[in-house]
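BUG: 3D viewer hangs when loading the predicted structure for this chain

Environment: internal workstation, default settings.
Expected: structure renders.
Actual: progress bar stalls at 90%.

Input used:
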Amino acid sequence: AFFTFFVGISSASTECGSEEEKQADYRGAIALTRSGLECQRWDSQTPQRHNRTPEIYPNKGLDENYCRNPDNEPGGAWCYTTDSNTRWEYCAVPMCDPPPTYTDCGSQWVDNAWVGQEDYRGTIAKTVSGRTCQKWDSQTPHSHSFQNYPYAGLDENYCRNPDGEHQSWCYTTDENERWEFCDVPVCDTAPPSAPTFCYDYTGVLELGPKECTATKLYHKLKAVYNTKRKEPGAASCPGGIQRELMALTRTTSVDEAHAALQNLCDYALEEADDEAGDGDWINLEQEGAIDLQEFWDGGGFLNEETGNFQQEENDFLKRGGYEKFIYIGDDPRQNDYLPTTEESYIGGSAIDSFYTDEASSSTLTPPPSNFNEGSCPDSNAAVCCWHRDRQYFDNNGNCNQNDCARANPMDNTDLCWTKENGNVFPYPGDETEKDLHCHGFAWADYDVPGDINSRAKWNNLFYVSLYDHLYQRGYADSITDDPLIMGQQAMCGCVEDMNPVARADCTEIVGQANYTAYQDGEGGPLVVRPVTGSFNLEFNSCKGYDYVEDFGPEDYYADPNANELKNSNNDLSAFVFRLYLEGKLDENHISAFEETMIGYRNPEVNKSDAKRAEACKAAFEEAFPGKPYIETA
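Structure tokens produced before the viewer hung:
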């Protein structure tokens, strides 16, 4: 008979120690430290007194004076020394099958296991801010204990990750900045498909309408992480919250992870928008009897009549009450002065209902008019300009309860000139044009995830023209409906089709919803979902930047918080400049836009009527050299 004996190979080794075990599995006979000092016996208390004895640490191989790691020191096997001046040191025990290292990059994930660029052995020695790294064997200007990590490749002052950060780093030679991360390239050729996690994130996070942003979602996940790591018996987590974030988003860098969080929110918002469905204009046309194209051209009863669309009892009481008025109430059809017609009243009621029922809760389809999905291709912007105020009590414009004849809106712009039949008609000052008001909106040239402002541009058209300015403020009639102003233009139209003006106010739309965020099962990715029925639109003053010469999209991408950029709200030109910087509009759009909005490069037009008049004069003289900027009969 033949007998075959299989000798089991112990996990302990007499030749080397494994990195995974921090060489606690080493059982060889090396008894010298890295600097050549002789090791003290583990059962001896001379010259070093200690409690790492065979009795207290059984099964740790504390034989003779051999190098061991009974207490899980990070740098591997060690021993107390027989030199009374040196208590202990690491030993030069070989590492068993060390993982590969790289000189040109560092791995974040290897086979879905976290590495965190611990395998980087290159010579990059500057931080992300450009600071020079301090040598690892130096204690100046920053003292540290990382000399105790013999297998971490701490050579010279090269960027490394000896302690489980989420990427390579170093101490700096700047005494005011102790340490920083380094910009070491990532070796990973693809994101992890099933990365390992430290903790569980399957619990549902609830996010309010303004909470689904990369920053706020990150802080909610960080709060979960901090709770988990403080639980009794919780394991340590090399790479920390940033490692967990990369695992949840299946990414290989912190920047990618934060971008992925924003993308999750953006796509969830689009999902909410899609679930809400499209709104149409039928109720305005049928219930309000509004011919939309006629209205935007500047015609129809809404533009031609005078009287209120909305009012409150208190509007009368605070202006004299029954001593001044016979009728006091919220029905403008019964007003003493300029009672509203039934037609305007019904139209206004339809506008008010449409704002709540359609325009604020779903994205509108293109209206039945000259506006369509391909409208305004030159500028990707539209504007309405008014010369008349038809409503009193709203604190906008100069129509009042005693006199609405030729009343004007609140002044926010200057008409520079008009054209008709090849002739040019300048309008310096405001003697003829009086007070005018322009308000517009703009949108991206292509589909951007989460860009509800562009998807809902027809909602903006409704809000700017029919709700905010007509129903709320009473602004009506195109500026060229004034018999003193020559030419002809629509009340609302594409910017490229309008006569030159100094500036315009601006509205942008922000989509909102409630959300839930959670890890999709054990080991799964992060998921963000909208709460059904929570989608709504908010109409806000545009947020933009004053124009900056020689500052373009590449500069903005490099530093979106550059000192040169000055915030400017409620200004169409500033918003268009922002869209340009974000890459949503190009130079051709800008060229077409500033032919009409002549103050695009001159934020001073926002300061005063005098500044707007100066800008119009300069634009006219540039467009028509030698022609005087004076009004012609």
